[in-house]
Amino acid sequence: QVQLVESGGGLVQPGGSLRLSCAASGSTFSISVVGWYRQAPGKQREMVAIITSGGSTNYASAVKGRFTISRDNAKKTVYLQMNSLKPEDTAIYYCKLFPSNWGQGTQVTVSS
Prior knowledge:
Elements: E1 4-7, E2 10-12, E3 18-24, E4 34-39, E5 46-51, E6 57-59, E7 67-72, E8 77-82, E9 91-97, E10 101-102, E11 106-110
């Protein structure tokens, strides 16, 4: 059974930065695609960034150039570095280990 635990969320002012972490249990992390998704109030969950086992990445257009996804297979951890944050980035951020394992989410609030 895979477990994912996110951390690093919080309240930040517009233009600020946060780094999210997602620690995974289980033995399949290094060969799995992992990603970050987010869900704002009243909206559907959407993909933010994905990284393959080989390190290839894909970003939503809304975050490209501001967010960076990375992974450390030895630590079974995936990161999301978020810079130049905007109020519209406010959401619960979820980690996903494909195909269908989700974390519990961490709240990110961007507000002055």
